[in-house]
Amino acid sequence: MDDKRFARADNIELRTIAGEHFLIVLHAGESKMFSVNGMGLWFWQHLVRPVAKAELLGAMLTEYEVDEATARAEIDRFLADLSEKGLARQTE
User: Fold this and answer.
1) Is residue 31 part of a domain?
2) From 75's CA, which of 2, 6, 32, 38 has a CA 20 to 30 Å away?
3) pLDDT per residue as tens, the chain (92 positions)
């Protein structure tokens, strides 16, 4: 796993509405809202500070019953999805 670090994008807020979790983009002129499932919420909580993929892997292997290959694939997929939607960013 590489040492790239990821964090939450700026101006994104987590809101809970009727028991559902949503990430809301707070940029002027934009109105986007993304539904977040349990795994998405887990990632959002871990991205509170810049975190390396290896740290996410360790946390996922500790907290879930998942094999390493599946965890690595899920981390790569989820970070790519969050980055593509502008919800997470790669840091220095």
Assistant:
1) yes
2) 32
3) 667 899 999 888 899 999 999 998 887 677 788 998 999 999 999 999 999 999 999 999 999 999 999 999 999 999 999 999 889 999 97
Report the predicted TM-score, pTM, of the whole model to 2 decimal places.
Answer: 0.84
CATH number where 56 lies: 3.90.930
Residue 77 lies in a domain: yes
Q: How far apart are CA 33 and CA 4, in angstroms?
A: 26
Query: Sign of the CA dihedral 69, 43, 60, 54?
Result: positive
In a domain, residue 11? The reply is yes
Residues 6 or more apart in contact with residue 62 via CB below 8 angstroms: none
Q: How many domains does the chain have?
A: 1
Q: Is residue 92 part of a domain?
A: no
- The counts of H helices and E strands in the chain are 3, 6
